[in-house]
Structure formats: C-alpha cells, structure tokens
Amino acid sequence: KNQVEQSPQSLIILEGKNCTLQCNYTVSPFSNLRWYKQDTGRGPVSLTIMTFSENTKSNGRYTATLDADTKQSSLHITASQLSDSASYICVVSRNSGNTPLVFGKGTRLSVIA
Amino acid sequence: NAGVTQTPKFQVLKTGQSMTLQCAQDMNHEYMSWYRQDPGMGLRLIHYSVGAGITDQGEVPNGYNVSRSTTEDFPLRLLSAAPSQTSVYFCASSYSRTGGSSGNTIYFGEGSWLTVV
Q1: What is the pLDDT of residues B41-73, one digit of tens each?
Q2: CB contact at 8 A, A89 and A104
Q3: SS3 category, A84
C-alpha cells in the first residue's frame, strides 16, 4: 500500500533552536518527494522538491534530505523563528495511477519565544 | 500574480443543499485538482483534470461533480450536501499531472471551509 508516515506528529521548540522532521514512505513507483509548509488557515506552500537522484535540497533555513534506498526523508529547520510555526507536509509523487500524490498527515511545529 | 484563487472562503450549508466551490488559476496550467483535508488525515484527491474538457475521479469522488470548460476554471459541485462533506477543500494546479522527474511545483489555493449542518 502506498503510504507516507511523518514523525513526530507535533513538536514544540524554542525560538532559535534547530529541529528535524521525519518522513518515511512506501510509495512506488517513486517520482519525487516534496515538502510543503501549511500555515494555519492557509493553503500548503512548496518548500522543496527532490527527485530520485537528489540527496539534499535547501531553501533558506530549510534543508531537505532524501535517502531513496531506505525510503526516508527529513526536513531540517535551522535557527527557528516564530513564523516557522506551521504544519509541514511530506508528499511523495508516483509515476502512475489516478492518485499520483500521496500525502503525509503532517507534523505540527510550534516555535515559542 | 493571483496564482490559484478559491471562493468562497467559508460556507455553511444545510443537509441536502447544493453548491459550487469556484477555483481559478492564471498560470495557464493544464493540470488542476480538488482535495479535501480532514483532521488527522492527509489531503485526499476528489477529482482532477488534465486539460479543458477532460476530468477524472480521484480517491474520494462520491457526492461531487466537476467540469473543465476552460483552462483557467475548475469548479467543484456538491450535489446534495451531507454532514460527512464538512471539510476544508483545496484546489491545486500544476504544469503537469505528477510533476514528473523535473518536479513541477504544485500550487494550492487558500482553501474553502465548508460546514454542513
């Protein structure tokens, strides 16, 4: 079954600290993996997109890694800010089927002062 | 640049009523889709379209209809609203269906909050 599992479900960190969010998937055939940020009451916004051959991709203070062999990805946030408080969603694209995108349930991050 | 625009933002319906959620994009994207987001669940695909005049069902299509008469617009119709359709609905668009190996960005609208009582 095609699934995307994210951990932790929620996380609270102090402003300025770093954190890492995890994503494990059992999706095939694999096309690419995306991380999205979703602020409360808003639509998801793309952070990174990685294909099979890419191991890491950065977007400012966000760095995503991909291990296609173990089917794991992580999103590392450096020097967190209050504005980083949001849900972070891992999405894996398949190369076939009517539902090519498989969404994780997200990790809810709260950054506190 | 408006991107993906959804209306209305909020709507309350009575059971059995019908309504249409509007979605428009100004990026000339061929692929558009509708998702619903429920607490504790990932986004689930309702319907999608790969171009004007072409639509297909996603994971949870029952109770919804779509049409794609133009490249820009992709409305979602609730035929006879049920409490189980209480959810947040997101419209999305992209250059291609899966994004492919090049990983085309998928753009989401701001969401439509629907409550069916």
Answers
A1: 889 999 999 899 999 999 999 999 999 999 999
A2: yes
A3: helix
Cα B33 to Cα B38, B59, B72, B79: the distances in Å are: 17, 12, 12, 18
Closest residue to B100, CB basis, from A31, A99, A102? A31
- Closest partner residue to B110 (CB to CB) among A42, A104, A106 is A42
- Nearest Cα to Cα of residue B45 among A35, A102, A28: A102
| Residue A42 with chain B: CB contacts under 8 Å | 110-111
Q: How far is A61 from chain B (nearest CA, A)?
A: 19
Residue B62 gets which letter from DSSP?
T
* Burial (CB count <10 Å: 0-12, 13-18, 19+), residue A59: middle
Q: How far apart are CA A97 and CA B4, in angstroms?
A: 24
Other residues' Cβ atoms within 10 Å of the Cβ of residue A86: 20
* Half-sphere exposure of residue A90: CA atoms within 13 angstroms, side-chain side: 28
Tokens of A43: 């639509």
3-class SS at A82?
helix
* Total residues found in chain A within this entry: 113
Please write the tens of the pLDDT for every residue from A65-96.
999 999 999 999 999 999 999 999 999 988 76
| B59 vs A98: CA distance, rounded Å | 8
